Amino acid sequence: MGLLWVLGNLTLSNVTWVDEATATSQQLAYINDAGNAIIKVDNTTTVANGSMRNSIRITTQDLYDYGSIWVMDAVHLPYGCSVWPAFWAKGPLWPNDGEIDIVEGINLMNQNQMALHTLGECVHQTPPDQKSPSGNLNCSTGTGCTVRESSPNSFGAGFAAAGGGVWATQFDISGIYIWFWSRPDVPSSFSVGNTSIDISQWGPPSASYPVTSQCNLTQFFTSQQLVIDIALCGDWAGVPSIYSSSCKGTCYLSNVVGPGSPTYDDAYFEIKYVRTYTVSAGLPIPPIRHLGQCGDDAHAGYCRPGHEVVRRRREPPRGHHRASSLAALVWALWWW
Ligand SMILES: *[C@@H]1O[C@H](CO)[C@@H](O)[C@H](O)[C@H]1NC(C)=O
Ligand SMILES: *[C@@H]1O[C@H](CO)[C@@H](O)[C@H](O)[C@H]1NC(C)=O
Ligand SMILES: *[C@@H]1O[C@H](CO)[C@@H](O)[C@H](O)[C@H]1NC(C)=O
Ligand SMILES: *[C@@H]1O[C@H](CO)[C@@H](O)[C@H](O)[C@H]1NC(C)=O
Ligand SMILES: *[C@@H]1O[C@H](CO)[C@@H](O)[C@H](O)[C@H]1NC(C)=O
Question: What Pfam families would the database entry show (predicted)?
Answer without folding.
Answer: GH16_XgeA
